[in-house]
Amino acid sequence: MTFDQADFDIRCEWGLQGVLTLAPISDVVIIVDVFSFTTCVEIATNQGALIYPYRGDDAASFAHSVGAELAAKWGGTGYSLSPHSLVSLPPGLRLVLPSPTARP
I need a surface site. Which of 24, 52, 63, 69 has the fewest CB within 10 A? Predict the structure, then answer.
């Protein structure tokens, strides 16, 4: 089912394609940046990954202790807090996601 918002004054779209669609026909475009950590958790768990949120400087040691891979905070070629880096996770992957707000 496709929901066409063309008849509305206020529209919501997602991602780059949404911006490219709305910017040429809008007086104002507001971009809402959700927390990348929560987006990453949602993407990873929907693919069957087991996520370990971790706050602290010794995340690599913690990842090793639980037999998990460590996501980088940003960048690199592996998993990171960039949601795009997690779109093809294998089911069952154990992944430590560093977060300054994770609760112990």
Answer: 24
Q: Where are the domains of the chain?
A: 36-98
CA distances from 21 to 8, 9, 37, 59, 84 (A): 14, 14, 27, 40, 21
Rounded Cα distance between 94 and 15, Å, is 27
In the numeric block, which tokens belong to residue 25?
A: 């026909």
With 0.70 as the threshold, say if the pTM is over it. no
- What is the Cα–Cα distance from 19 to 12, expressed in whole angstroms? 10
71, 79 in Cβ contact below 8 A?
Answer: yes
